[in-house]
Amino acid sequence: MARRVPAAVLHALAPLRRATHRDRTPARETPLLETSAPRPNPWLQSLTLAAVVLLGAWLGLLVVGNVRAPVGPMNTTMALRPSLTGGTKINVSPLGALELDTHKAPVRLDVNVDQLDETRAQALVDHPERLSDLQDEVARDVADDTLNLAVRSCVAVVSGATALGLVVYRRPRRALASGGLALALLVACGTSAFATWNPKAVLEPRFSGLLSSAPSLVGSARSIVTEFDVYQKELARLVTNVTKLYDVTSTLPAYQPDPSTIRVLHVSDIHLNPASWKIVASLVEQYDIDVIVDSGDTMDHGTAAENGFLDPVAGLGAPYVWVRGNHDSSTTQKYLGKMKNVRVLDDGRAVTVAGLRFSGIGDPQYTPDRTAERGDRAEELAGARLASSLRDQRNAGTPVDVAIVHEPSAARETDGEVPLVLSGHLHHEGTEVMKYGTRLRIEGSTGGSGLRAVEGKYPDPIEASVLYFDRDSRRLQAWDEIKLGGLGRTTAEVARHLVDENKPGATPSPTLSSTTPSFGSPTPSNPTRRSPSPSP
Q: What is the CA radius of gyration of the chain?
């Protein structure tokens, strides 16, 4: 008869039985379980961590590391960027950039000049004595902005590396370690930059883009520093004169719209002068312009870096008809061609805008291209191609009212094929009726010759014309020559000219002029209707 084992005994033997069971397990099973997971490679772990720290820090600087800050009368954006050489880069769009060897560290300071603040700039104009404190003000602004940038950059690199660490490791401790290493890296870079800081770097800048010609225009940076008092006075005069020029523009006589006329604003040779856009917009509003015609040389070099200068064209308030000048490139032409309100004319293309039919051809020469064909022969061939297109248009029953070229020598080839041809290039206005009856109207420089305006003692004036066409016959009836004194002057003139072949020898109407930004009563706004055929 089997005996029953007391429960207390079984309970006491249970640990021994479990130990005996473990002893019976094959000896090879335990090593297999222990070696089933491979040990991580420490080198791979280090490389992964370095990649997370560097990439996370860079993304953080890119996304939240920018600081928008005022520096003197300018609004700027400052940021730190990874770099092998360090230094400081100042971007002045669309003119180019200048680089300074301010420090040696794997991080670069980028400063983008966004715009000139009108309020602060006007304060300098109203109180020129503040220019004496401008240098100290700029130094204080830069110091404050650099401190703000340093703090924001620390937050940016820690946030970026920590966030990326969470995505990669999914462990808070590893992510925080990534952020801490990113902060240590940035502090090390800052220490290196501080140790190698070179305050004299401003004396030897490197220019790129259009600013590469800056030393020849305004003198070397060294002379600016050594003769700062002289430059302060010149800067005060320049700012004051530009403001007066704007004032003169706003007080030009405003003619009442005449429903019997089509009003065309002719501009040319702006040459990258940003002041021109405000003047053009003012004339469009005051004269109720139907269409703007630009006969070229809107740019100076035609580089892609200049394209941003053209953006105000979209907001001028009137359709813009444009032909290429010898300072404009195919890049310029393509950029303008994408704007909805712009009609680019080339190779005799014709368009109808505001009731007038225009046809034009771009200048065959491109000044920066030294290999291109040059001389009057190239212009004459281009004019001949345009004349052929004008004849084809007339034979097709769609005659052209106004032809547009850049060079007057090309315009002369269209004589007898069109009532009016517009050109520029010479930087001074002029009008003549050619042998076979075509009127040639040459516009001056609406940009005052651009940057060249500051080279001479007497800068070129800013010139434009308002052309009045009869809405029924589509022929020129009258035009106003508008001339604003260049930088350094405050004069303005508006002269009305009438087309009147019924009165041979008729003289232009008296010139409206002023030596201050004010005018008397304007000439009549409704030009007398004349016969459609032009005459001397």
A: 36
Q: How many Å apart are CA 42 and CA 47, to the nearest integer?
A: 9
| Model confidence, pTM | 0.54
- Contact (CB, 8 A) for 301 and 327: yes
pLDDT digit string (tens) for 155-201? 888 888 898 888 888 888 888 888 888 889 888 888 888 888 887 66
Q: What secondary structure letter does DSSP report for 509? A: P
Distance CA 459, CA 288 (A): 29
- Give the highest mean pLDDT range of 23-27, 202-206, 458-462: 458-462
Residue 325 identity (one-letter amino acid): G
- Rounded to the nearest 10 degrees, how much is the dihedral formed by the CA atoms of 25, 30, 33, 37? 180
Tell me how far the alpha carbon of residue 308 is from its chain's centroid: 3
Contact 5, 14 (CB under 8 A): no
According to DSSP, residue 363 is labeled: -
- Tokens linked to 72: 């003197």
> What pLDDT band is residue 269 in, cutting at 50, 70 and 90?
very high
In order, the DSSP letters of 406-463 are SSHHHHGGGTTT-SEEEE-SSSS-EEEE-TTS-EEEE---TTTTGGGGGTSSSPPPEE
Residue 394 CB neighbours (<10 A): 13
Q: How confident is the model at residue 133 (pLDDT cuts 50, 70, 90)?
A: low
* Cβ neighbours for 294, distance < 8 A, ≥ 6 positions apart: 267, 268, 270, 320, 321, 322, 323
Question: How many Cβ atoms from other residues are within 10 Å of residue 126's Cβ?
Answer: 10
Backbone angles phi, psi at 394, to 5 degrees: -65, -40
Are 406 and 295 a contacting pair, CB within 8 Å? yes
- pLDDT for residue 513: 39
Residue 524: predicted pLDDT? 35
Contact indicator for 453, 273 with CB cutoff of 8 Å = yes
In 181-222, the DSSP E strands lie at 206-209
Which tens digits make up the pLDDT trace of 393-421?
Answer: 999 999 999 999 999 999 999 999 999 99
Bridge partners (DSSP) listed for residue 291 = 264
Q: Is 227 helix (H, G, I), strand (E, B) or coil?
A: coil
Q: Is 259 exposed, middle or buried (0-12, 13-18, 19+ CB in 10 A)?
A: exposed
Order of strands, edge to edge, in the sheet holding 291-294? Answer: 342-344, 320-322, 291-294, 261-267, 462-470, 476-484, 492-498, 511-514
The Cα–Cα gap between 119 and 378 comes to 49
